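Cross-posting from the modeling subforum.

Setting up a comparison between two proteins and wanted a second pair of eyes on the formatting. Protein 1 (sequence, then structure tokens):
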Amino acid sequence: MSERSPAPGGLELVEALVNTLDLETGADSLDTEEGRARLGLAEEDVPAARELRESLRATLLAHAGHPPHRPVTPLGELLAAAPLVVTVDPADGSAALAPAAAGSLAARVAAAVAQALVAGTWSRFKACQAADCHWAYYDRSPAGRGRWCSMQVCGARAKMRRYRAKES
């Protein structure tokens, strides 16, 4: 739904996962082979990916100051089962966190979250306030108070609803 540029760094993976479900239409790209392939998932990985997606969505709503959209497994519990390792580049000595199991979506998400924490970008990663959207987006607004994934769509709808409510 968003016309925003992708989230920085590893958050692009998290954004891609959260945005696999279009709440307005109900379309879930995890139902398609192509959608699963984009995230490196097999069909048997889908239930765990959906659980992770909704836990991430609840966390991103919290970043935006909103309650969870529904009861979910806490993100910390899901990521605790996703081991990371410290890798060190022998050429320049730079260190990074990486998934212990390269194919694990939860471990790749955990590494992305850890990278975002270090970079200071995690708290600006949010979910759209619109109840029929909740699309993930990176808030690049100067004050960090963005509310919608798209001002032209979700923001305009909210403002129009507010205006109509005043008129009646």
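Protein 2 (same layout):
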Amino acid sequence: MNRRTRITLFTPLMACSLALGATATGWAATPRTAPAAAPAAAACFVELKAGDATKAIVSGEGFDKAKGKVFLDQTDGGGGGTATVGDDGKFTSGEVPAGKYKVFQNSGATATCLGGQEAQDAINQQLITKERQRGAKEGFTDGKALAQAGTCNAEPKPPANQNLQGLVPDSEGKKQAKEAHDQAYNSAFDAAIKRYCTD
């Protein structure tokens, strides 16, 4: 084999080994553990004070207690204020003038607050999603327990919805949340029975 042929064959092999080396390094650097769950996105709501449409309460979630207070900025007026963030990332303001608000933390999260029907729709959807997840978890747990105890002909019996506090869904939102919970519960219950009851 002459020198020119050896160089011609060697060059692509060298390029391949360099490419594989970089890829292998990338594989080695890939962590083997799952990434941590992302924190809840910052969100806030403006709720008119009962009996006084000139006043409102601003509440929110998804903020970082370590970054200090949340600042409230009324975007359609001169109102504003601050609120303290709890360990759970939530806050509730004192009375502020009714209007539209943005909230922010220094070097932290920012959110445009929802009000009126938009806020109600968002609150409704939060509950529907939460109840669907709760129903699926409870249904599977209950179905698995009964199946493992040998009760393979059990029927699903969803528990009652949890009590709600603060800015709460309206009656239609609660109805949809109950339906979502019960459907998820029944599906998960049946899935657990099928999985753990073997002939």
